[in-house]
Amino acid sequence: MQNQNKQTETISLKGEVIKTYQYEDLMVFVYKISSDEIPLDDFYMVSLDDTSTEVVWGAGSDEEEALQNAAEAYDRMPPNNDDFNPFKHALETLRGERL
Length: 99
What we know:
The chain contains two helices and four strands, in the order ββββαα. It has 99 residues and is α+β, with helices and mostly antiparallel strands. The protein has a four-stranded antiparallel sheet with strand order 1-2-3-4. 26% of the residues lie in helices and 33% in strands. The radius of gyration is 17 Å and the shape is globular. It has one domain (14-98). α1 packs antiparallel against α2 (86-98). The mean pLDDT is 91. The chain has helices at residues 63-75, 86-98, and strands spanning 14-23, 26-34, 43-49, 54-60.
């Protein structure tokens, strides 16, 4: 196999918080991700901030899909003390807003 020269390019993505959901000391953030530099369909990322760290849990083509993916990923984690899934609650709130 021949060694091929590969070029890399750096691009910038914009992340804008479009919605937050708060549950006691937990914050769920929904980001809309877009780019002005390349043709890219906007997508959404969902993170959880527990006052010490913020971790991305899901992504999708819209807010609902991103929250659903985050809720499913959170459910796959070992059970915690209260079995509270903040993403499921955010998803229920979002669906309630749409009724």
